Amino acid sequence: MEFIRENPLAVLLLYLFFINIVGFALMGNDKRRAIRKAYRIPENTLFFVAIIGGSIGTNLGMKVFHHKTLHKKFVIGMPAILLFQVFMGVLMLVQIYVRR
Predict the structure, then answer these.
(1) What does the alpha-carbon distance between residue 26 and residue 17 come to, in Å, rounded to a whole number?
(2) pLDDT, tens digit (0-9, with 9 covering 90-100), for 45-89
(3) Whole-angstrom Cα distance, residue 83 to residue 85?
(4) pTM (whole model) above 0.85
């Protein structure tokens, strides 16, 4: 618990690293399932992972696996989530460093 209190940025970066690996893996897994005509991962799950921080991984997964690239809500939605998260991250960093 002390590590978390003393290193919140490290904890955040670790979380983002792992959630993006999950997002990337989910896109690859769903592509594999689509090819095999197996039970698919719900689109809401893919978007949820992106929204909770896995947008880089899901966007990379779309590109690498050529998955969901014909679906407008993914082609527009996933990059929009990423841009929003980058914007909010920059905004938070500016506020942190302006207060110093």
Answers:
(1) 14
(2) 999 999 999 999 999 999 999 999 999 999 999 999 999 999 999
(3) 5
(4) yes
